[in-house]
Structure formats: C-alpha cells, structure tokens
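Example 4.3 (complexes with small molecules)
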Amino acid sequence: MAVNRMFRTCPSTGLVYHEAAEKLIRWNAVAGVVALLFGGILALLVTATRWQAIHLLPPDWFYLVLTAHGLNMLVFWIIFFEIAVLYFAASVLLKCRLATPRWAWAGFWLMILGALMNNVAVFRGDSSVMFTSYAPMGAHPAFYLGLILFAVGALIACFVFFGTLVVGRNEKTYNGSVPLVTFGAVTAAIIAVFTIASGAIILIPTFLWSVGLVDHIDSLMYRTVWWAFGHSSQQINVAAHVSVWYAIAAIVFGAKPMSEKVSRTAFLLYICFLQLASAHHLLADPGLTSNWKIFNTSYAMYLAVLASMVHGLTVPGAIEVAQREKGFNSGLFEWLRKAPWSNPAFSSMFISLIGFGFLGGISGVMMGTEQLNLIIHNTIYVPGHFHATVVIGTTLAFMGLTYFLIPTLFRREVMFPAMAKWQPYLFGLGMCGFSLFMMGAGTLGVPRRHWDISFAGNALGHEFPGTAWLMMALMGIFGLAAIVGGAMYLINTVGSVFFGKKIETPGFVHVKAKDGAAPPWQPVAVAITGHGPSIGTAGFVAPGTFLLAMVFLISFVLYYFVNWKYLSTVWPLS
Ligand code: HEM
Ligand SMILES: [Cu+2]
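Answer. The structure with protoporphyrin IX containing FE bound is encoded below.
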C-alpha cells in the first residue's frame, strides 16, 4: 500500500513534520483563527450593548449576536485549534506519519460545513437560543444539524489522532512512553470522545424534535445531559491548554517536568473526575437531589481541581528549576524576573497560568459550592468566571503557541514583532479586568445575558446600586482593551501567515519507515519530547514557586470564607 511518507526537519527546532500532517495542522489552525475573528467582532457588539452607556443593539439583535459569539468562540475557534494541537502532539512530537490523512480531511470539511450551517441558522434570526440552547426554546433544525456535523468531524479527528499513536508505536518512531505533552493531548482526546457522545445523546433527539419527529423534550433531562457535554468540553480545553503550558515551558526554557509521575497522574484525575463536576451547572435546578449535587460538586469536583492545582504548581516549578540551572539563582524570584517577558510565547503562557488559577480557578470553586452558588446563579458573575478560564486560560495559551508555530510550522517570520511583544499584555490584562468587573457586578446581582439593566418600560422594575453600573462600564472599557489586544493577534497572525517573509528551509524528503527517523533533533525538539525524572527530586527545589502557591492558597481561603459571610447576609432570618 502506498503511504505518504514525506517528512521535513525544521532546522531551527529540529521538529519533524509529516507533509500531510503539516497541511492539516495549518488548515485547522487557520479555520480556528477565522472563527476567532468573527467571534471577536461579535464580542465588540455584545460588550457595547452591555455597557449601558452605549447600549448598542436592540434586544433581538443582542440575543442573536450573543448566541453567535458564544458558539464561534467556545466551539468553533477552540475546537479547530485543538484539532491542530492534537495532530501536532501525535504526528510531530512522535516523528510519525499522520494516520489516514483522507479521513482527517473528511473530518475537517465536515467541521467547516457544520460551523457554516450553524452560523447560517443563527443569522436567519430564528435560532437565538444562546450557546446552551435549552429546550423548550427551539432553534431552526440547521442549528442542531450543524452542531452534529461539526461534532462528527471532530470525532473523526480524535480517531485520526488515536490512529497516529498506533502508527508511531508500530513503526517504532519513538521509544518508551509518549512525551508528557502528547500524554496531555491523549487526555484531551479521551475526554473529547465522552463529550461528543453526550452531545449526540442530547442533540440528536433535539434535532428530531425540531423537525417534528419527537414531540417533547424534557427540560430537566435536556439540561442534565447537555451539561455532561457542555462541562466536559471545558475539560478538553483545560487538558489542551495545560499541555500547551508544558510545551511552551519546554520550548522557551528547555524545562522538563519536575516529576513525570505526578504530572501524568494529575492528567488521569481529569479523566476520572471532571465529567462529574457537570453538576455544578445544575445546582439551582429543582428535581435533582441535594445528595447528588453535593457528592458531585464537592468530593468529585475537588479531585479535578486538585489536578489543575498540581499543574499550576509543576509548570512554574519546572521553569524555576530550569532557570536556576542556568544560574538565575539569587533570591526567591530572580528566575522569574529574568524570564523572557518580551517573548510573547512565554508572556502569554504565564499570564494564562496566573489568570486561570487566580481568577478562573478560585471563582470556579466558589460557584461550584452548592450553598454559595445561589449568590451568583445566573448573574454576570458566571461569564466573568468563564472568560477567565476559556479566554485567559485557553485562548491566551493558544495565542502563545501560535507565535511559536508561525516560524516553525508556517515557515514565515512574525510580521510585527513589536506588536507581538505587547499583544499578550493588552489582551491578557484587559481580560483580567473585564472578568473581575463582571464578577463584581454579578456579586451585586446584575443578571447575565440581559439586554437592559435599567429595565426601562418594565412593569416590575429593579434598581441596581450605582456601583453596579460603574462596574459594567469598567467591564466595557477593559473589554475594549482586550478586543484591541485580540485584533493585534489577528492582524499579526493573518499578516505573517499569508504575507510574512518566507523562511527558507529544506523541503520534504521521502523517508522510509525502517530508515528510522530523520536527522538528529535540535534542543527544542529534545526538550519538548524529553522526559523528566519519574519522581521529583528530594527537597523542594523551587522555593519561589512554593511561595506563589502559598499566596494562591491564602487568597483562595480568604475569598471562599468571605463568600460564606456574604451568603449569611443575603437572606436575613431575623
Ligand atoms: C476580547 C474578547 C471577548 C470579549 C470582550 C467578550 C465579551 C463577552 C460578553 C460581554 C458576553 C455577554 C455576557 C452576558 O451578557 O451574559 C460574552 C458572552 C460569552 N462569551 Fe465572550 N468575550 C470575549 C471573548 C470570548 C472568547 C475567546 C470566548 C471563548 C473561548 C468567549 C465565550 C463566550 C461565551 C460562551 C459567552 C456566553 C454566551 C451565552 O450566554 O450563551 N468569549 N462575551
Ligand atoms: Cu462546568
């Protein structure tokens, strides 16, 4: 059987690219960036409406644009980019040909078709059902069918990824266990299969209902199964962006994981416990018992949170160790001060890590506590939390990886290096302010997904305190800063990839499987695919990171208890 075995070696990193894989990674990444561009334009419209002083869109357009923003960002941008990451982690990091490129293309085109179909349905105007599309709200059949086709495409991509792992093993392109970054990608892909199955279980009947073949969808059942899909898909994102953190730490610093076993076990915890945490989306729902809610959102969820905290400790820990080995040894934080803060791959990754942990993580645990949940349920606190996780955490990490991929994968120079240097700060810090002010306004009771907090013309009005209005305005200002940061990323990425200066590198050559691998690897390739010690070295070798972790813990505990105190004032009993 003729199989495509054209490989090239990147001269500056030593990474080995299979021709078919390279093309697929490029196309998936570009499709993701196009969705981000579209979703970003919609973000501007949504933000300018919720900033009450501007109050841009009328209600029908607000809900339409909000639906399209959520889907293009959280589904189309993120998943296209994740497929690119999966192919990279399997084919490039294992020096291995991609299994069945034809199937991979079929998956890609199905995803494109699904994304277009879903967007057409939304912009027809009869599918403004929000990202969650809760039944009995109904959308046009093309809305559900688009999502189903997209999911089938993504499922095919997952199987191509697993197939590639098998090819690598059979053709002995790597020795021993897969590198940690690939292991993280395996975690993401396993969770993805569970996620897509849950999505099928709920969206197929809902599609049949939309065309009139099923006459009733139970709303509680819908929400329960939908969140098995909706929450798990966020765990794919976490597993993927944590893998990207490890990859960037290896690329920029040559950092090796402090302990392979600990990091791998933490990934396993995601697989075992994250899906259960889906219940935190149902804490205010009638019809589910408190026992079930509490079991899922406390015991089970905390094991998943533990895993993220392990990664949050070991990634900077590994960087600290690598920096100290280079001689940045004085005091607790020289390693961090002397980090390459003007390298956008690093600054993106580090802001992503801190923002995800402090803003996304702490607020997530607070919201996920059954009793505390009622303070912020359905308020704008919720989008404040998840913009900290999926935007500062996932999106910013992916942006950081892009700056590495432009020269090595796309073989182009970054067009505007100075812009690249500032972009992560504007986007990341803008998003931190945006999320924080949303959380502030939410704590004061401002509802999420609401067109008008003045309640003008309503029979039953409500007056929010002046601070809430102020917070919404600050949210708008920081949101705009983040949008400018996002635009800088898009201009630079699109500019570099399509019009940037070409980097001349040796082309693809035919390599037979049994010839073994291509030329020797350069330091980057060695670091990103190398293994750390299986158990961490004795004693705590990263004291700076340890101190950071303590600051995190104290903030966590204080914030948690402040909210219990706050809960006691919400509902005075005397
Ligand atoms: C500069 C970037 C962004 C800004 C300024 C922004 C702004 C907003 C605003 C103002 C809302 C409406 C909140 C409400 O009224 O309830 C919203 C909703 C949302 N955003 Fe973003 N966003 C940005 C980027 C992103 C990204 C990158 C993602 C995903 C990766 C994302 C996912 C969502 C989702 C899922 C919703 C909820 C939609 C729904 O309620 O159905 N956003 N965003
Ligand atoms: Cu969740």
